Amino acid sequence: MKHRHFSHRLSLFAGLLSLLCAVTAAWALSGKIIEFPVPTANSGPFGITAGPDGNLWFTEAGFTLGGVTGGGHKIGRITTAGSITEFSIPTAGSFPVGITAGPDGNLWFIEALTGNIGRITTTGVVTEFPTPFTGFEGSFPFGTITPGSDGALWFVLSNANVHNNNIGRITTAGAFTAFPVPTANSEPFVITAGPDGALWFTELNANKIGRITTAGVITEFSIPTANSGPAGITAGPDGALWFTETGGDKVGRITTAGVITEFPVTAGSAPAFITAGPDGNLWFIEFNSNKIGRFSPTPSHKLSEFPVPTANSEPFGITEGPDGNIWFTENAGNKIGLLH
Question: In the sheet that 107-111 helps form, which strands lie side by side, from edge to edge?
Fold first, then answer.
C-alpha cells in the first residue's frame, strides 16, 4: 500500500517536472537580436526597465562612455513592437541614468548631474525632487534605482572624488534619507532588491558587495578576486544574488548569508549590468566584447554569447521585458536592442 502511494507521488512529480520543462521551453530565447534606433541623435541610452504599462522605459543621458556628447537628457518609452516616444526632462543637462518602475505605478530615475531624483508618469508627466545631500551634483551615480520592500525607492550616491559614499532612499512623496557606506570611497554602483527584503549593492572601488536593511543597517562582504570591479547585481532564480566583475571577467554569486562563489567568463569581455531572464538564466552585457552573455545558474554553468549587430555599440543597461524577451540599451550605438 505504501509502495503504491509512493509510486503515485512519483508519478505526480514526474508530471509536474514535465510541465515545468514545457514552461521553460516555452520561454526559450533564440538569441536573435533586433535593434531600434533612438530618434534623438547621440542620445546615449543608459538604463532600461519594464514599465507598469507593458512598455519598456529607458534613460537618454546625452553622453556616451566614450566621451561623445549630443542630444538626450530625455526619458524614452519603447513598445514591445519597437515604437519609441521621447519625453524631455524639465531641468536641462540632467544626465538621467538609472531608471526603475516604482510601487506607485510611475517610473523613477536618477539625474546624475543635477542632483535630482525624477518621477515620470506613464503619460509622460515629469516631476523632479532635488536631493538635500551636499555634493550629489556631479556624483555620476551610473548605477540603478530600485524599489524596496518598504515601499520606497533606493539608489546609490557614488563618487570617491567628492566622498559622496552613501545609499539613498526616497519615499514616493519625495522625502529623502541617506545612509553612509562603512568603507570610505567605496563607490556604490548598482543596487537591487534582494529576496530577503534587504537591498544589495556593488561597491566598485572597495571590491565588496553590500547589503542594507530597510532600517539602514549595512553589512559588507569582500569579493575573493582582488580588484574585481563589481558592477551589476540582480536577484537570481535560485534565491541568491548574482553580480558581475568587470575587472575580473567573472560572474559572482552571493547567498543571503554572504557566501560568495565566482565563475569565469570570457577574458576581456568586461561584464557589467546583469538581469535574471524568464528562462531561468542570468543575462548580462559584455561592454568590451559588444555582446550579450547568458549564464546558467544550474550546475552546468553554461556560458553563451550573442554579438550585438551594430559594431562598437557599447551595450549597457539590460532587463527582462514584459514580453518575455531581453531588452538592452546601446549607449554608443544610440539604439535599443531586443534579444528574443
Answer: 96-101, 107-111, 116-120, 126-130
